[in-house]
Amino acid sequence: MPARYGVGGGVGGSLPGVLGPEELDGRIEWVPIRPPRDLPEALAARLGSDDDAGRLVLGVLGPLRQLLEGEPLGAIVAKLPLPLARELADAELNLCAKVAPAAGAAEYLAEVSRLVLHPPETAATYVRAVFAAAKAVLAPEEARAVEARLPPEIAELWRGA
Asked: pLDDT digit string (tens) for 51-107?
């Protein structure tokens, strides 16, 4: 039996609760991870809580709204909280009424940069994060339907996320 682990050199007795390497069971700290339930939750898991997930989702998906009209947009909207889903789905509401539809990757990234109020380099990171989070919460056939509606340059971004 190996010697009991102890902390020495301090003033006083041994510290309560100190475990040695042989006494530590790594299974105690294991916590099962559940998959995200909605798009903002999946995005927050990727970016952290410092970023406004709702603003980023609208900024990234707003320019794609007209292209995704129908089943693909419905699949994405189903993975959003109600106020955010309403704003993305209804073209007459605040953000989506003022957003130019995406044509190519350069114009799309410039529009996302304008909407999320960050430089294009940061906006590109947000686009990848939102696309990856969307693909994580959508069923594979729904993700393929979204990709099929996107222009080729933007579809490449979707595949790469």
From this structure: 788 888 888 898 888 888 889 999 999 998 888 888 888 766 655 556 667 778 888
Q: Is 141 helix (H, G, I), strand (E, B) or coil?
A: helix
**91, 68 Cβ separation under 8 angstroms:** no
The alpha helices in the chain, defined as continuous H runs, are: 39-47, 53-61, 71-77, 82-89, 105-116, 120-137, 140-149, 152-160
Q: Is there a contact between 24 and 18 (Cβ–Cβ < 8 Å)?
A: no
The answer to whether residues 147 and 132 touch, using CB atoms and an 8 Å cutoff, is no
Question: What's the distance, Cα to Cα, between the start and end of the chain in Å?
Answer: 51
Tokens 């971004």 sit on residue: 157
Q: How far apart are CA 88 and CA 95, in angstroms?
A: 8
